[in-house]
Design brief:
Blueprint lengths: L6 H34 L2 H14 L12 H8 L6 E5 L5 H8 L3 E6 L2 H10 L6 E5 L2 H7 L5 H5 L6 E4 L10 H14 L5 E5 L10 H14 L9 E4 L3 E4 L5 H9 L2 E5 L6 E6 L1
Parallel strand pairs: 1-2, 1-4, 2-3, 4-5
Antiparallel strand pairs: 5-9, 6-7, 8-9
Length: 273
């Protein structure tokens, strides 16, 4: 007579199988949603969605520098108490670290929840001075215009576009205008830009293709199929910058370019006057 499997083991095996099927189903739903978001939204809607996702994501709440950031800052930032501008600062991970090191830090971000967290984390002995603002406000401030112009205190000794910050600007011409503004605000110091390498290509899941088709249909347009713009649920929309873009920034601003692109971290660009 064959030995019978205990009831508890059969129940657990069935439960595990049901969970795995549910996970696969949720994976299809997620792929379809990501595809829909990729094609259904226009640039204004994408720009509005990204800070809202950051406000709800735990990924922007860290307090420590990454392993690759400490040597980058040590080698390429001027020494404290230099004044550093940190655009799109989030909850202030980089900004607070620089302030603790003795830098005078100004920062801005469009995500109100993250700015409130930055304020709660402020150390009175080494505070970060922060305001609400978008990258378009920085471009205007470079010409002395807009609300952010009253907050900024140029000239800065350095401008730090932290991890992925500038990649959230989806158009190359707008990124160039922002770098131009940073150059105006920091004419004699380095501009540091860090951003992720382009994601690896590959066949898209069928559910994602269906979501993209639905997004285009509802939006009644064929726009926003640019493969160099991609969506992450915790970070919103990002642009995959091409290899020649930093050289174009350098040419526009008359700066020298150093690019670090290895497996120790993301792409790191230093523009020096």
């Amino acid at each position: 007579m064959a030995e019978r499997t205990p009831l508890s083991a059969r129940v657990l095996a069935r439960a595990v199988g049901e969970v795995q099927r549910a996970q696969r189903g949720l994976g299809h739903v997620q792929s379809a949603l990501f595809g829909f978001v990729q094609t259904a939204l226009d640039d204004e809607q994408r720009a509005a969605l990204t800070p809202l996702l950051y406000d709800r994501s735990p990924h922007g709440l860290g307090t420590d520098l990454f392993a690759w950031e400490r040597p980058l800052f040590g080698a390429h930032l001027p020494r404290p108490p230099a004044r550093v501008l940190v655009p799109a600062c989030g909850a202030g991970r980089e900004a607070h670290a620089l302030a603790r090191d003795g830098y005078e830090v100004d920062a801005f971000d469009p995500a109100q929840g993250l700015l409130r967290l930055l304020a709660r984390r402020n150390d009175p002995a080494c505070p970060v001075r922060a305001a609400a603002g978008r990258f378009r406000d920085l471009a205007a401030a470079g010409q002395g215009q807009g609300a952010l112009a009253a907050f900024l205190r140029p000239p800065y000794d350095a401008v730090l576009f932290g991890w992925s910050a500038l990649a959230h600007v989806l158009r190359a011409d707008e990124r160039a205008a922002i770098v131009d503004a940073a150059h105006q605000l920091c004419p004699a110091g380095p501009l540091i830009v860090t951003y992720p390498a382009p994601p690896l290509g590959g066949a898209k899941p069928r559910a994602m293709l269906l979501g993209e088709a639905l997004g285009r249909r509802l939006a009644r347009r064929d726009a926003h199929t640019d493969e160099r713009v991609y969506f992450l649920p915790w970070a919103g929309f990002l642009a995959a910058l091409d290899d020649g873009e930093p050289a174009r920034w350098a040419a526009r601003t008359g700066r020298t370019l150093r690019r670090i692109d290895d497996d120790t971290g993301p792409v790191r660009v230093i523009l020096r006057p």
